[in-house]
Design goal:
Elements: H1 8-20, E1 46-47, E2 80-89, E3 94-104, E4 111-117, H2 129-137, E5 154-162, E6 165-166, E7 169-171, E8 184-193, E9 198-208, E10 217-219, E11 222-225, E12 231-232, E13 234-236, E14 247-249, E15 264-273, E16 277-280, E17 283-284, E18 289-291, E19 294-304, E20 309-312, E21 319-323, E22 331-336, H3 342-362, E23 370-374, E24 386-388, E25 391-393, H4 405-426, H5 439-453, H6 462-465, H7 475-482, H8 504-521, H9 523-537, H10 544-555, H11 558-569, E26 577-586, E27 592-596, E28 599-603, H12 605-622, E29 630-643, E30 650-656, E31 661-666, E32 675-684, E33 686-691, E34 707-709, H13 715-737
Parallel strand pairs: 1-14, 2-15, 22-23, 23-25
Antiparallel strand pairs: 2-3, 3-9, 4-8, 4-12, 5-6, 5-9, 7-8, 10-11, 11-20, 13-14, 15-19, 16-20, 17-19, 18-19, 21-22, 24-25, 26-29, 27-28, 29-32, 30-31, 30-33, 33-34
Helix pairs in contact: 1-7, 1-8, 3-4, 4-5, 5-8, 7-8, 8-9, 8-11, 9-10, 10-11
C-alpha cells in the first residue's frame, strides 16, 4: 500500500518525482526533544532501535521455526491468535469490541512486559507522531485529505486482564516521538509468560473511526475498519532479522510507515445493522445471525497477521466468481462496489483473477480460499489503494474506457494491491524498518505484470485526446523518469520514516533497481531467485539480507546480486556513464620519406595528394554504388567513454556505414576507473557509438549522453522531446483529475 499515493502512477511519478525535483521530501525534520524515558520493562527485554533499518546479516536457518515446507500442520507458526467480537454504530462511527488475545512466548526467557499497537490513536490529535511528522515536513498524507473538527479518531483500552487479574499499562514512545503519541502501549503482566508457554489477555476497547484518512475511517454510510483493534507487537529472537537477543519490535505509527505483526488465527464476529454489506478478511462462517435488527457476521482466517473489514448500506450487489490454479485451493473472489462505480467492478474482477494466476505462477501458489476487492465510494478515495490479508481496496471510476488513464490506473492499483498479499501478507516483511521488501518489490512485480500484459499508460486528458495527442508510455520508463537519479540521497534499505527524499523513491527507484538487476542477470534467473525467496520465507518475516541471499542462490548470479545490493540497497549510488568522444577518420598516405626496395625515396605532399586522388577514382570506378564513408583507405575510429558514478557492467556498440557493428564490454578494471578509450581500424567510417544499447541501466542519470553520432542525428533531440512531452502530459492529466 502506498504512502505517496497508491494510485500507482501518481505514487511513483508525482510522489517520487516531485520529491526528486526538490519538492515535498526536501526537508530535515527537527524532532521535538525526546520525552522522559519510560520505566524499564519488568523483564529487561529491549526494544528495537529507533533508527533500525535494513539488516545486512542473514537470519539463521531456524529463524521463525525454519522453512514452512508443507511438513508442518499449519501454514504459519501461529504466534498471536485473536477472538474478537465487535459491534458497529454507523451513526456515531464507533466500534465497540472485546477480544481474547492468546500469545505464545517463543523465546527462552520469561516475559513480563508486552507491547501492543494502538494504531488508531495516530488520528486522535495533532500531537501524534503521525501528524507531528506531517507538520514538520509540510506535507499531507497521499491525497491530502485532512481531519476537520469533529472528525478525529482514536482507540480506547477500557480494560485489560490476564487470568482475571487487571493488567496495568502505559503509553510509550519507542522511537522517541512526542510524549503525546499514544500509538504504542506497554502492558506489565501480573504473571510472567514462561518460555514456550502461552497467555491469554482479555481486552475491552472502543474505536472511534475518523473521517476517512490514511487508509481507514468512514464517509457517509461507508466504513473502512482497519488497524482498529489492540495488536500485539513482534518479539524477535536471536538470529531473526539481525537480532542478537530477544527484542520487541514495536515502532510508533509514523507518517510514512506501515505495519508488522506475528502470524496467527483470527475468529472475528462483526455485528452491524441489517441492510449493511460486509466484507472482511477470511471466510464467512455460515449465514449471518439476526437479532434486534442487527446481523452478526462471523469470519475466520488462519495464518494471517491482520484483520480488516468494511460495511456499507449503499453497496451494489457484489460480483462473485471463483478462480482455480495449481497448488491453490478454489478461491472465491468478491468485488464490493458502490453504484456510482459500477463501471469499475468488472475490470477489477478481471485484474484480480489475472493477478491470482500471474503471482501464483511466478512466485508460488496463493494459499487462501477468499479474496475480496473493495472499491470505496465517491468521497472516500483515501480508503482506496490499501492491502490487508485476503482483502484489499482498489480505485473507482465512473467510466473505464480503453486507452484512458482511468483504465490503466484501475488495473495497476488492483494488481499492486493484490501483489501486497504476497510481499506484505504471505512473506510478511517488517514494513517499518525495511519498506523495500514490500513496496519496492511489489511495485517491481506490478510493473512486470503490466509489461507482460502489454499495457501502456495513456495519461493524456480527454481534451488532448480529441485533438489527436494520445501518447502511450511503458510504466518502467515512467518510473525511471521521475525517480531521483541525479542525487539519490536515501538508501533503499533505509527505514520508512527517516528519509530526506520521502518514501516515494522506495516505490520508483526500488522498481528500477530490480528491473536493472533483471536486465543484467536475465528474466529467467530473476524469476528463479524470487521463487526461491518465496519458498524459503513464506510465513517467516524475511530481512533484506535474506532477500539478497535467496536471489543470489536462486538465480545463480551471486556476484551481480551482491554488487547491486551493496551499491543500491545498502547505499544510494549514482549511475552516470556517457560517450564523450567519437572520432572516425581515414588513414591516408602521408608525405615524407620511406624505404622502397631497400632505397629511401621521398614523396612530396603534392605527389601524395595525386596518388590519393588516383586511388579514389579507381576505387569508385570499381565500386560505383558504394556508400559515402567507404573507399580505398581504412578508417580509424576512436570512442572514449566516461564514468561519473558507480561502476556497472557496460556494453559499447559502434555501428559502421556498411551496416556492420562492433560490440565491446566495458567492465572497469577497478572501481576507480573513470574512463576508457576503444579503437578500431575498419574499411568504413563509423556512424555512431552507443553505450547500453539494450537499455539495461535505467538507473543511469541521463540516457541522452549514452550515444554520439559522427554526423548530425535527430534521434537524441527526439528522445529529449518525448521525455519533456511525457512530463507535461502527466502534469496535465493530474490537473484534469484532481
Amino acid at each position: 500500500m502506498p504512502i505517496q499515493s497508491k494510485r500507482t502512477l501518481w505514487r511513483a511519478l508525482l510522489g517520487a518525482g516531485l520529491l526528486a525535483l526538490g519538492g515535498l521530501g526536501s526537508w530535515l525534520a527537527q524532532a521535538d526533544p525526546p520525552p522522559p524515558a519510560a520505566a524499564p520493562s519488568l523483564d529487561g527485554i529491549a526494544l528495537a532501535a529507533a533508527d533500525a533499518a535494513a539488516v545486512q546479516v542473514p537470519s539463521t536457518a531456524q529463524a521463525w521455526g525454519g522453512i514452512r515446507d508443507g511438513a508442518h500442520p499449519t501454514l504459519s507458526d501461529r504466534v498471536a491468535n485473536y477472538r474478537i467480537e465487535a459491534t458497529l454504530d454507523p451513526v456515531k462511527h464507533v466500534v465497540t469490541g472485546r477480544q481474547q488475545l492468546s500469545w505464545r512466548n517463543r523465546s527462552a526467557v520469561p516475559v513480563r512486559s508486552v507491547y501492543v499497537h494502538l494504531y488508531m490513536n495516530a488520528f486522535e490529535g495533532e500531537g501524534s507522531t503521525f501528524f507531528t511528522e506531517q507538520r514538520l515536513r509540510g506535507a499531507a498524507f497521499r491525497s491530502g485529505v485532512e481531519i476537520g473538527d469533529g472528525d478525529w479518531g482514536h482507540i480506547a483500552l477500557r480494560s485489560v486482564s490476564q487470568g482475571g487479574a487487571a493488567v496495568p499499562w502505559r503509553f510509550v514512545q519507542p522511537d522517541n516521538g512526542p510524549a503525546t503519541d499514544h500509538t504504542v502501549a506497554r502492558l506489565d503482566l501480573p504473571q510472567a509468560v514462561a518460555p514456550g508457554a502461552s497467555t491469554t489477555l482479555d481486552m475491552a476497547f472502543t474505536t472511534q473511526l475518523p473521517r476517512v484518512i490514511a487508509r481507514t475511517g468512514y464517509y457517509g454510510s461507508f466504513h473502512m475498519v482497519a488497524q482498529w483493534f489492540p495488536k500485539i507487537a513482534v518479539l524477535e529472537l536471536p538470529g531473526e532479522r539481525g537480532a542478537l537477543a530477544p527484542r520487541w519490535n514495536a515502532h510508533e505509527f509514523h507518517a510514512e510507515s506501515e505495519f508488522y505483526a506475528d502470524f496467527g488465527s483470527y475468529d472475528v464476529s462483526l455485528t452491524v445493522p441489517k441492510g449493511y454489506t460486509v466484507g472482511a478478511t477470511g471466510e464467512l462462517q455460515g449465514r449471518p445471525v439476526e437479532k434486534n435488527g442487527m446481523l452478526t457476521h462471523r469470519y475466520v482466517q488462519h495464518d494471517v497477521h491482520d484483520f480488516a473489514w468494511t460495511a456499507d448500506n449503499r453497496s451494489a450487489p457484489a460480483l462473485v466468481e471463483t478462480w482455480t490454479g495449481p497448488g491453490s485451493p478454489t478461491v472465491t473472489v468478491r468485488v464490493l462496489y458502490p453504484p456510482e462505480y459500477a463501471a469499475s467492478a468488472r475490470a477489477a474482477m478481471k485484474a484480480a483473477k489475472d493477478s491470482l494466476g500471474y503471482f501464483s505462477r511466478k512466485l508460488g501458489p496463493y494459499p487462501y480460499r477468499t479474496l475480496t476487492v473493495v472499491i470505496p465510494p465517491y468521497g472516500a478515495e483515501e480508503a482506496g489503494a490499501m492491502e490487508y490479508p485476503t482483502l484489499f481496496t482498489a480505485s473507482g471510476h465512473a467510466s473505464v474506457a480503453p486507452r484512458t488513464y482511468a483504465a490503466y490506473e484501475l488495473d495497476a492499483v488492483t494488481i499492486h494491491e493484490f501483489g501486497h498479499g504476497y510481499f506484505y501478507g504471505i512473506l510478511a516483511s517488517n514494513e517499518f524498518e525495511e519498506p523495500l521488501l514490500d513496496e519496492g518489490l511489489n511495485s517491481y512485480w506490478e510493473n512486470r505484470m503490466m509489461r507482460e500484459r502489454g499495457q501502456l499508460v495513456y495519461p493524456a486528458p480527454g481534451w488532448l485526446k480529441r485533438i489527436g495527442i494520445d501518447p502511450g508510455f511503458d510504466s518502467f520508463a515512467a518510473n525511471r523518469l521521475f525517480m531521483p537519479r541525479e542525487r539519490p540521497l536515501d538508501a533503499l534499505g533505509q527505514n520508512a520514516w527517516n528519509r530526506l527524499q520521502g518514501i516515494g523513491p522506495v516505490y520508483s527507484r526500488g522498481t528500477i533497481v530490480m528491473r536493472d538487476l533483471e536486465a543484467r542477470i536475465g528474466r529467467a534467473a530473476m524469476e528463479r531467485g524470487f521463487r526461491e525467496y518465496y519458498r524459503r520465507w513464506k510465513f517467516r518475516h524475511p530481512s533484506t539480507a535474506d532477500l539478497r541471499e535467496a536471489l543470489a542462490d536462486g538465480s545463480g548470479e551471486r556476484a551481480a546480486v551482491e554488487e547491486v545490493f551493496a551499491q543500491q540497497v545498502y547505499a544510494a549510488a549514482r549511475v552516470d556513464d556517457k560517450v564523450t568522444e567519437l572520432s572516425t577518420e581515414e588513414e591516408l598516405p602521408l608525405a615524407g620519406t620511406r624505404l622502397v626496395d631497400g632505397k629511401r625515396v621521398e614523396e612530396s605532399r603534392a605527389e601524395v595528394e595525386a596518388r590519393i586522388a588516383r586511388l579514389r577514382a579507381e576505387w569508385h570506378k570499381a565500386n560505383p554504388n558504394a556508400r559515402p564513408g567507404s573507399g580505398p583507405f581504412p578508417w580509424r575510429t576512436r570512442v572514449t567513454v566516461r564514468r561519473d558514478g558507480a561502476p556497472v557492467p557496460q556494453t559499447l556498440m559502434v555501428r559502421f556505414v556498411d551496416g556492420s557493428s562492433e560490440t565491446v564490454a566495458w567492465n572497469a578494471a577497478s572501481p576507480d576507473e573513470k574512463w576508457r578509450s576503444f579503437t578500431w581500424v575498419r574499411p568504413v567510417r563509423a556512424v555512431s557509438a552507443e553505450l547500453d544499447p539494450r537499455r539495461s541501466h535505467y538507473l543511469d542519470v541521463n540516457k541522452l549522453d549514452d550515444s554520439r553520432t559522427s554526423v548530425p542525428n535527430r534521434r537524441a533531440s527526439t528522445r529529449w522531446t518525448s521525455d519533456v512531452a511525457l512530463v507535461f502530459q502527466l502534469i496535465l492529466s493530474f490537473i484534469a483529475t484532481v
